[in-house]
Design brief:
Length: about 130
């Protein structure tokens, strides 16, 4: 593994997660990280009686497909585990960079997962009811 690529990936993940947390704070919503022993999601928050769980993925043109496949599986699992406790839970898959392949948007819509990246947080998260 290339240490520079690992560092870039970690930086991209952290920057994207921070951007999401800041977006939520700008809308009066406090996000939280996962607790030990529970699902290891990146960020969750409550808005309008719904718990939103997000998985953040660092992406590049070369790894977007692989990262989105991995992230989708993770966020579906987190949603299922949290819903099993009686919570009303919705899932959010967060990419670092824009996702240009429209089949990803369609797939996520079919699975009731909101696919976002920083440029569309306002548009897509507000429309989904995750913020407002």
């Amino acid at each position: 593994m290339d240490p520079d690529a690992i560092d870039r990936g970690l930086d991209g993940h952290n920057d994207t997660q921070t951007a999401l947390k800041n977006f939520l704070a700008d809308h009066g919503i406090e996000g939280w990280s996962s607790a030990p022993g529970g699902p290891q999601y990146d960020l969750a928050w409550e808005h309008a009686g719904v718990v939103w769980v997000a998985e953040v993925k660092s992406t590049t043109p070369a790894n977007t497909e692989r990262q989105l496949r991995l992230g989708l599986g993770q966020v579906l699992r987190y949603r299922a585990l949290m819903a099993a406790t009686g919570l009303d839970v919705r899932a959010v898959l967060v990419a670092e960079m824009p996702v240009d392949d429209p089949t990803w948007t369609g797939l996520c819509e079919d699975l009731d997962v909101v696919l976002v990246w920083p440029d569309v947080f306002e548009q897509r998260l507000v429309a989904a009811g995750a913020a407002g």
